[in-house]
Amino acid sequence: MAENKIRVVVAKPGLDGHDRGAKVIARAFRDAGMEVIYTGLRQTPEQIVETAIQEDADAIGLSILSGAHEHYFRAIINLLKEKNSADITVFGGGVIPEADMSVLLGIGVGAVFGPGTTTTECIDWLKNAVEEKSKKK
Protein backbone atom coordinates (compact mmCIF):
# COMPACT_ATOMS: atom_id res chain seq x y z
CA MET A 1 0.00 0.00 0.00
CA ALA A 2 1.03 3.62 -0.40
CA GLU A 3 3.33 4.87 2.36
CA ASN A 4 1.27 7.98 3.02
CA LYS A 5 -2.32 8.01 4.14
CA ILE A 6 -4.85 7.78 1.34
CA ARG A 7 -6.48 11.17 0.77
CA VAL A 8 -10.06 10.96 -0.50
CA VAL A 9 -12.55 13.68 -1.33
CA VAL A 10 -16.15 12.61 -0.64
CA ALA A 11 -18.59 14.81 -2.53
CA LYS A 12 -22.30 15.32 -3.15
CA PRO A 13 -22.70 16.90 -6.60
CA GLY A 14 -25.77 18.77 -7.72
CA LEU A 15 -28.98 19.50 -5.91
CA ASP A 16 -29.32 16.14 -4.16
CA GLY A 17 -29.70 16.96 -0.47
CA HIS A 18 -29.50 13.43 0.95
CA ASP A 19 -26.09 13.07 2.52
CA ARG A 20 -26.43 10.24 5.03
CA GLY A 21 -24.62 7.74 2.79
CA ALA A 22 -21.81 10.20 2.05
CA LYS A 23 -21.32 10.83 5.76
CA VAL A 24 -21.34 7.10 6.55
CA ILE A 25 -18.68 6.32 3.95
CA ALA A 26 -16.61 9.38 4.89
CA ARG A 27 -16.53 8.22 8.51
CA ALA A 28 -15.71 4.64 7.46
CA PHE A 29 -12.77 5.85 5.36
CA ARG A 30 -11.56 8.02 8.24
CA ASP A 31 -11.89 5.15 10.71
CA ALA A 32 -9.84 3.01 8.29
CA GLY A 33 -6.98 5.52 8.58
CA MET A 34 -7.60 7.62 5.48
CA GLU A 35 -7.61 11.39 5.31
CA VAL A 36 -11.12 12.45 4.26
CA ILE A 37 -12.19 15.78 2.86
CA TYR A 38 -16.00 15.98 2.82
CA THR A 39 -17.14 18.82 0.57
CA GLY A 40 -20.71 19.01 1.83
CA LEU A 41 -23.90 19.29 -0.18
CA ARG A 42 -24.64 20.84 -3.54
CA GLN A 43 -21.16 20.97 -5.05
CA THR A 44 -20.44 21.68 -8.69
CA PRO A 45 -18.06 19.45 -10.65
CA GLU A 46 -15.65 22.41 -10.77
CA GLN A 47 -15.70 22.78 -6.98
CA ILE A 48 -15.15 19.06 -6.46
CA VAL A 49 -12.22 18.87 -8.87
CA GLU A 50 -10.65 22.03 -7.47
CA THR A 51 -10.89 20.63 -3.94
CA ALA A 52 -9.32 17.33 -5.02
CA ILE A 53 -6.42 19.11 -6.72
CA GLN A 54 -5.85 21.55 -3.84
CA GLU A 55 -5.95 18.73 -1.30
CA ASP A 56 -3.63 16.51 -3.36
CA ALA A 57 -6.27 13.79 -3.21
CA ASP A 58 -5.72 10.24 -4.40
CA ALA A 59 -9.43 9.76 -5.10
CA ILE A 60 -12.83 11.37 -5.44
CA GLY A 61 -15.87 9.48 -4.20
CA LEU A 62 -19.23 10.75 -5.39
CA SER A 63 -22.50 10.01 -3.67
CA ILE A 64 -25.35 10.44 -6.13
CA LEU A 65 -29.03 9.72 -5.61
CA SER A 66 -30.48 12.26 -8.03
CA GLY A 67 -30.38 10.25 -11.26
CA ALA A 68 -27.83 12.62 -12.81
CA HIS A 69 -24.93 10.23 -12.22
CA GLU A 70 -23.71 10.01 -15.83
CA HIS A 71 -23.63 13.80 -16.18
CA TYR A 72 -21.65 14.36 -12.97
CA PHE A 73 -19.20 11.52 -13.40
CA ARG A 74 -18.51 12.53 -17.00
CA ALA A 75 -18.06 16.22 -16.07
CA ILE A 76 -15.65 15.41 -13.23
CA ILE A 77 -13.58 12.97 -15.27
CA ASN A 78 -13.36 15.49 -18.15
CA LEU A 79 -12.32 18.30 -15.78
CA LEU A 80 -9.64 16.12 -14.24
CA LYS A 81 -8.27 15.40 -17.72
CA GLU A 82 -8.33 19.10 -18.64
CA LYS A 83 -6.39 19.94 -15.47
CA ASN A 84 -3.80 17.17 -15.98
CA SER A 85 -5.11 15.36 -12.91
CA ALA A 86 -6.56 12.23 -14.49
CA ASP A 87 -4.45 10.19 -12.06
CA ILE A 88 -7.05 10.93 -9.36
CA THR A 89 -9.25 7.84 -9.03
CA VAL A 90 -12.97 8.51 -9.38
CA PHE A 91 -15.56 6.17 -7.88
CA GLY A 92 -19.05 6.49 -6.51
CA GLY A 93 -22.13 5.09 -4.99
CA GLY A 94 -25.79 5.66 -4.57
CA VAL A 95 -28.93 4.58 -6.31
CA ILE A 96 -27.57 3.93 -9.78
CA PRO A 97 -29.38 1.52 -12.11
CA GLU A 98 -27.46 -1.63 -12.94
CA ALA A 99 -27.82 -0.83 -16.66
CA ASP A 100 -25.91 2.44 -16.19
CA MET A 101 -22.96 0.94 -14.35
CA SER A 102 -21.19 -0.32 -17.49
CA VAL A 103 -21.53 3.14 -19.06
CA LEU A 104 -19.91 4.73 -16.00
CA LEU A 105 -17.10 2.18 -15.93
CA GLY A 106 -16.61 2.78 -19.65
CA ILE A 107 -16.00 6.50 -19.17
CA GLY A 108 -13.38 5.88 -16.51
CA VAL A 109 -15.20 5.50 -13.21
CA GLY A 110 -13.18 3.04 -11.15
CA ALA A 111 -16.09 1.45 -9.30
CA VAL A 112 -19.76 1.98 -8.56
CA PHE A 113 -21.17 0.80 -5.25
CA GLY A 114 -24.91 0.29 -4.96
CA PRO A 115 -27.24 -0.14 -2.01
CA GLY A 116 -26.21 -2.97 0.27
CA THR A 117 -22.48 -2.63 -0.36
CA THR A 118 -20.58 -2.85 2.90
CA THR A 119 -18.20 -0.11 3.97
CA THR A 120 -15.49 -2.78 4.18
CA GLU A 121 -15.92 -3.53 0.47
CA CYS A 122 -15.52 0.17 -0.35
CA ILE A 123 -12.48 0.55 1.90
CA ASP A 124 -10.76 -2.54 0.48
CA TRP A 125 -11.48 -1.47 -3.09
CA LEU A 126 -10.09 2.04 -2.53
CA LYS A 127 -6.94 0.77 -0.81
CA ASN A 128 -6.31 -1.62 -3.70
CA ALA A 129 -7.05 1.00 -6.36
CA VAL A 130 -4.66 3.52 -4.84
CA GLU A 131 -1.98 0.86 -4.34
CA GLU A 132 -2.27 -0.25 -7.98
CA LYS A 133 -1.99 3.34 -9.20
CA SER A 134 1.08 3.99 -7.06
CA LYS A 135 2.77 0.89 -8.58
CA LYS A 136 2.25 2.33 -12.07
CA LYS A 137 3.93 5.65 -11.25
Strand neighbour order, sheet with most strands: 2-1-3-4-5
As a percent range, the share of helical residues equals 40-55%
Based on CA atoms alone, the radius of gyration comes out at: 13 Å
Shape: globular
Which sequence of SSEs, written as H and E, runs from N to C? EHEHEHEHEH
Question: Which secondary-structure class do the elements indicate?
Answer: alpha/beta
Total number of helical segments? 5
Describe the structure.
It is a single chain. This protein is an alpha/beta fold and 137 residues long. It has a single domain (7-136), classed as Rossmann fold, CATH 3.40.50. 46% of the residues lie in helices and 17% in strands. It has 5 helices and 5 strands, in the order βαβαβαβαβα. Strands 2-1-3-4-5 form a 5-stranded parallel sheet, sandwiched between helices. Helix 1 links the parallel strand 1 (7-11) and strand 2. The model has no long low-confidence stretch (mean pLDDT 93).
Give a quick summary of the entry.
The chain has 137 residues and is an alpha/beta fold.
Labels describing this entry:
137 residues; alpha/beta; Rossmann fold; 5-stranded parallel beta sheet; 5 helices; 46% helix; globular
Outline the secondary-structure elements:
Elements: E1 7-11, H1 20-31, E2 35-38, H2 45-54, E3 59-64, H3 69-82, E4 89-94, H4 98-106, E5 112-113, H5 119-136
Parallel strand pairs: 1-2, 1-3, 3-4, 4-5
Helix pairs in contact: 1-5, 2-3
